Amino acid sequence: MKHLILGTAGHIDHGKTSLVRALTGIDTDRLPEEKKRGITIELGFAHLELPGGIQFGIVDVPGHERFVRTMVAGVGGMDLVMLVIAADEGVMPQTREHLEICQLLGVSRGVVALTKSDMVDPEWLGLVAEEVREYLAGSFLAGAPVVPVSSRTGAGLDELRGELARLGPRPRSGRGRGRFGSPSTGSSPLPVSAPS
């Protein structure tokens, strides 16, 4: 059995927690305040076992900018990231921030889940997928699989599991590289502020 850590990343309300629940059957939002407000505040945890003897421990991170310190704490041990982008909104501020943090801290591979794909028409979905690929060019996720999914209908979940299973056995390619190609040391200071 190969054990790996898969972390989520992405903008608030793009469906990270719903996707983890759809994949695993586990609700990672445990706190009453999280359930009341409908947002992730603390790190959440789940597990996913895939064919081929691969078991992922999943770390679900908050998407709200106020909780970026908690997000950073979750990135440290990731083997790979699942960048979650809602098809009805595309790349948003915390998409960019989370990608940059993952890159700074040395995450070097992952997959992109285009959530809420059932809420847009196929033409729009294709445009968003292309926008995402263009945005990721030059990052550690350049050329990564972009998988449209719906946590509500289940569409695309088997394809996403398949991509994760294919990524799992690959060896880590070393530390991540910055947006301009400079190696990340994992020690770069991050401009984060405490929640008010």
How would you characterize this protein structure?
This protein has 196 residues and is of the alpha/beta class. It is 31% helix and 19% strand. It has six helices and six strands, in the order βααββαβαβαβα. A hairpin with a 3-residue loop joins β2 and β3. The chain is globular, with a radius of gyration of 16 Å. The N and C termini lie far apart (43 Å). Residues 174-196 have low confidence and may be disordered.
Derived from helix and strand composition plus strand pairing, the structural class reads alpha/beta
The ordered string of helix (H) and strand (E) elements is EHHEEHEHEHEH
Largest sheet, order of strands side by side? 2-3-1-4-5-6
Strand content: 15-25%
Reconstruct the topology from this structure.
Elements: E1 2-9, H1 16-24, H2 32-37, E2 44-50, E3 54-60, H3 68-75, E4 80-86, H4 93-104, E5 110-115, H5 122-136, E6 146-148, H6 157-167
Parallel strand pairs: 1-3, 1-4, 4-5, 5-6
Antiparallel strand pairs: 2-3
Give a concise summary:
With 196 residues, the chain is α/β, with parallel strands linked by helices. The chain has helices at residues 16-24, 32-37, 68-75, 93-104, 122-136, 157-167; strands at 2-9, 44-50, 54-60, 80-86, 110-115, 146-148.
Pick out its properties:
31% helix, six-stranded mixed beta sheet, 196 residues, 6 helices
